[in-house]
Amino acid sequence: MLARLWRGPFLLAAVLAMAASGCDSSSPERPALVTVPVPQGFAPLPVPPQNPLYADRVALGERLFFDPVLSRDRTVSCGSCHLPELSFSDGRQRSVGVGGATGLRNAPSLLNVAYRKSLFWDGGALFLESQALVPLEDPHEMDLAPEAALERLREHPEYPVLFERAFDGDGPSVQTLTYALAAYQRTLVSAPVAFDRYRAGDTSALSPEARDGLALFQTHCSACHAGAQLTTDGFENNGTSVTDDDPGRERITFASGDRGTFRVPSLRAVARTAPYFHDGRFQTLEAVVAHYDEGGDGTPGQSPRVRPLRLSSGEKAALVAFLQTLDDRPAAVDRSPTR
Ligand code: HEC
Ligand code: HEC
Predict the structure, then answer these.
(1) Is residue 278 a known part of a binding site?
(2) Which of 5, 230, 234, 287 could form a disulfide with 225 if both were Cys (CB 3.0 to 4.6 A apart)?
(3) Residue 36 Ramachandran class (φ > 0 left, ψ -120 to 50 alpha, else beta)
(4) What is the pTM of this model?
(5) Whose C-alpha lies nearest to ligand 2, atom 34?
(6) Quick one: signal sequence residues (predicted)?
(7) Tell me: the pLDDT tens digits for 207-219?
């Protein structure tokens, strides 16, 4: 168990044997809780009391996350579209599910997903514990009814025991499946980066060019991409043109004023989560910066904060240099389970 968790690069983690036995005398073997270190400036990791980060629950969630058994034709796992080495995004403009079905949207990074106030580009889900049913059933993703998924897990040679251990005797159910996936995903937290050291007072952590970029960022961007998470988690129209197929948050609220608004993404690890925007329309950070420099597409309802900036080419390069310092990992990492 410990070895398994340590192998995960995002769990740089101390796996602490917490005094679980003292809490619950009926199960003296109540396993360790995972503690996930978070960068300075982050709030403590939000973990709902109903779903503690028990190490065996996190490990089960990790295994399920990478297991294609949860898709109709057994070819697609959550990890097919949320790849560890791409900070849990997939590098595609739009995601491809079972049978090559293409969805409408770009797969967002799951890094720091525990901190999101709502989920999906339009905030269409509120809790990790309920979110997982969406990709499971979506015909463009895994295309498997929950009952069918549970049947496979119940018939599996190993899963029933793993569920029972992680959930005090409960086997695979909609609740235990989604709780395990949620517990694992909460452990996907950024490692500290140069930006964090800079925020903590070490000015030499950023190069002079990146510091120039940060100053521009603070002037033009940080009203929406704010704080250590680089997002307010609010919904904004940043001048991205939309179609009726995907009107943004209007899809959820039916309010015409929400047409073309999307949740402001965190920019942590943004250098490895291309392509960008809800529909993956931009391949590079240079193209994103050009979008803002031009003042967006001038779409109806566009935020007044997005307006022509007329930056010099050096300033645009500085902004990109700053965004690159938010990267998390120097090299590709492998979290895919070998078991
Ligand atoms: C076929 C590719 C694909 C598969 C498979 C897939 N996802 Fe996703 N995931 C996406 C896309 C695309 C989005 C964005 C959808 C949207 O915003 O409407 C997304 C969004 C999410 C989000 C919201 C993140 C955020 O910041 O809002 C979570 C959490 C998530 N997926 C978890 C999972 C889990 C758990 C599984 C497996 C049960 C899974 N995904 C399977 C493509 C995929
Ligand atoms: C009015 C709020 C707002 C401002 C100001 C703003 N952004 Fe954004 N940003 C957003 C929203 C909303 C999205 C998602 C748009 C979409 O998906 O269509 C976004 C997306 C991005 C992305 C893509 C992230 C991804 O994962 O796809 C990057 C990079 C980015 N912004 C950088 C910047 C920079 C650099 C500036 C300043 C020049 C800036 N933003 C200013 C709201 C804003």
Answers:
(1) no
(2) 230
(3) beta
(4) 0.90
(5) 221
(6) 1-19
(7) 999 999 999 999 9
